[in-house]
Amino acid sequence: MGILSRRDFLAATAGAMAASTLHLGGASAATPKRGGTLVATWGGFEPQALFVPPGGGSSPYFTSTKVIERLLKLTVDLKFEPVLATEVTPAEDFRSYRIKLRENVTWHDGEPFTSDDVVFNALEYWKPISGGVSLNALSGAEALDKHTVVLKFNAPVPEFFLKSVLAGKSGLVIPKHIYAGKNILTNPINNAPIGTGPFRVKEWVRGSHVEYLRNEKYWDPALPYVDRLVIRWWRDPASRSAAFEAGQLDLATFNPIPAPDIPRLTGSKKFVAETKGYSNSAWVTTVEFNNRRDIVKKREVRHALMHAIDRQFIAETVFFGRAAPSTGAIHASNALFFSKDVPDYPFDARKAAKMLDAAGYPVKGGSRFSVSVVSAGWFEENVKIGQYVKQALEDVDVTVNLTIPDRATSLKRIYTDYDYDIAISNNSGSIELVPSTTQYYTTDGIVKGAAFRNATGFSDAKVDDIVAQVAVETDPKKRVQLVHAFNKLVSTEAPMLPMVDLEPVTIARADVRNHSTTADFMGESWSDVWLDR
Amino acid sequence: MQRIVARRLTQIIPLVLGVIVLNFTLIQMAPGSLFDVMTAEQQVTNPEMLEKLRHLYGVDQPTYIQLFKYIWSVVTLDFGFSYRQNAPVLDVIMQQLPATVILMLAAIAIALLVGVTAGVLASVKVNTIWDNLISLGAVFFFAAPSFWLGIMMTVLFAVKLGWLPVGGMRSIGVEQNVLEATVDVMKHMLLPATALGLFYAATYARVMRASMLEIFRLDFVRTARAKGLSRTRVVIAHVLRNALLPVVTLLGLQLGTVLGGSVVIEAVFSWPGIGSLLFDSVMSRNYPMVLGVLVLGSVIVAVANASVDLIYMRLDPRIRAR
């Protein structure tokens, strides 16, 4: 099928890091061709607005990143490459960073891009709105000249951490002359964003598509390769398959079509399926134990229940093989921090039953105890996983009261009301673990009403201490060691652990070249994607 | 006549008020809120920012205040602001409602054309192979879910034969004059309108057949034939007109369900109507948008029902006399 598994992906990534060049699924050594219209979509719905300043989820991130750029980008082999910044250099004490900006860059309305824009973004947009706790340590930003900025911090900031922020979801650079003095969240321009990117918005037909045209004044005159980019929305995965087969769709990210259709499409050799390009937005399905509840508060009970769940079954049956059982708290595609040296909980129902006996919960009247399981209904797969987990726990004589609420209700029950014993949820983490992964385990991650953080109520001084060290450790090797210690500790405590690592897939026509080249391809500008027609 | 129209239109006011109060209450009773959804999507973790957003979205006020404020704004023809879409509610709806209305009208036209023709044919050829085939077809299209029918039609006509587009409402990035654009929209609309309309066509065919057969047995039809009128003239001028009354009744009753059915069909065919907007708004508890869609939808259905009443009077003057 031409698809790499997660293990193959890791091997390929490691190999690629050693080699000087990469031949990615969509990458090509051939000379790129100019022109054409690229029609793309993704496996989700239309965005609520083309640009949502605080984030807004994958859909507005997809549509805004074709227009609004960042200072850096992260390639699949974990190298930071320049976009709007040509250099990002730390001071010796890592408490300030000097950023040299690209010259001769203009916004889509013709205004020049300068260091004032970056200072405005750092202080008015990234720190208070998009970056959240990531930029807590940012204490100031200063423009030294038109193209040089210094970011100042009140603590040492690791280089990989800062560059990840600048290349990440929260590092989009918006124009000061448009947003200054106005409410960034409700500015009408968010539905027709202006940026420095390779494409500018031509029109958005709500419910149908957004059409972008080539930015003729882009700072790299050779880019973008395609003249027109159209992002369309089909709510129904089967309709996306039909659109591919009818030749009306070129490229689609994040599991756009039903899994059983993938071998049929790729078997024709007209399409390719690619799993690269997701490591900086790596999705997992998690099991979360509410530490406010007496039974699942006990570590040995959590371990037993983990053993009762066959995660291989979930990966193969629910996800049709497009997922793999997780190892520890870190997604396996994270080539920088992933480690296998953590406690694991392989499926063993007999062992689970014995452990529950030993924990003081023997079977009485046909049941050991009763738990409330909330499976967040925002993904179709969670419905099936919830039903499977209910059966699996009942196999070890645990009575399960399963509910699979819709998105709004799931958010309220899990993250506001903490109304569950066991929650089945999801999250996407970046390669940099602070805070996207660590906030599920640290005490400061407990914020009532704030979703996708520590909802379990787990609090451990050792974990907090290690994460605090990771946040300021500037030696990359020591940082990796600290992360491994963190991973081992939280995998042992298991207040919340990924059950399966999802392996999202991109489907593309075979003549679409140079896609899936970055660590978060969906959120890149796609300036270098070209059509071999 | 004018009095009847005025009375019908006046009835819309309590209807709209009822729609607002009922749906506002239902949304408020549902667990979770727009605030929960938006702060989750935006990954807001700062307590100060959470409070600021709570105030911005107006969810820090008591529910009854929110309701009265909303009713007052609707009275002043202001449907509010959707923070989720970052745009006025009416602007967003008016961008997408026309597509739904066009699809509804096309589906109803197909349903009436196919259903009435098939019903007439079946009644004229009663107990023949034609009658049996039409009955079989009606049962099939009545039983087949419209989304399944839509996918099957897409596979056949768009993927295998390549005659029609897979989805959308028009070709993107193509310069067209008015005529070309109209033809283009009709090509895009053919599959979704047919998939939506065939279900209703099946109903109309069955009702039309039964109604025609009943009218055929009445005295005035026998009289018309005894006067020497041709069979075709009797069917078209006398039987068809009277037999249409139950179909018109059904049409009036089903306008709301056609609007509901278009939500599913829009998803299959990527039709840029209000279906996806309504679905997303319900899921995100975006009550200004949900109420806006439902209020405008109920106005459309009420106006259409008033039009059906007028058609009724045109078909049967006895109704006007009463």
Which labels suit this protein?
heterodimer; A: 533 residues; alpha+beta; seven-stranded mixed β-sheet; six-stranded mixed β-sheet; 15 helices; 21 strands; 21% strand; disordered N terminus; B: 322 residues; mainly alpha; two-stranded antiparallel ribbon
Short précis:
The complex is a heterodimer of chains A (533) and B (322). Chain A is of the alpha+beta class.
What is the total tally of β strands of chain B? 2
Secondary-structure-based class of chain B equals mainly alpha
Across the major sheet of chain A, the strand order is 8-9-10-1-11-19-12
**What order do the SSEs of chain B take from the amino end to the carboxyl end, as H and E?**
HHHHHEEHHHHHHHHH
Helix content of chain B: over 70%
Number of strands of chain A: 21
Oligomer: heterodimer
Major beta-sheet overview of chain A = 7 strands, mixed
Radius of gyration of chain A: 23 Å
Low-confidence stretches of chain A: 1-24
Rounded mean pLDDT score of chain B: 87
Share in β-strands of chain B: under 5%
Largest contact between protein chains?
Answer: A-B, 60 and 59 residues
Relative helix content of chain A: 25-40%
Tally of helical runs of chain A: 15
N-to-C span of chain B: 11 Å
In terms of DSSP E residues, the strand content of chain A is: 15-25%
The rounded Rg of chain B comes to 24 Å
Query: What's the shape of chain A?
Result: globular
Tally the helices of chain B. 14
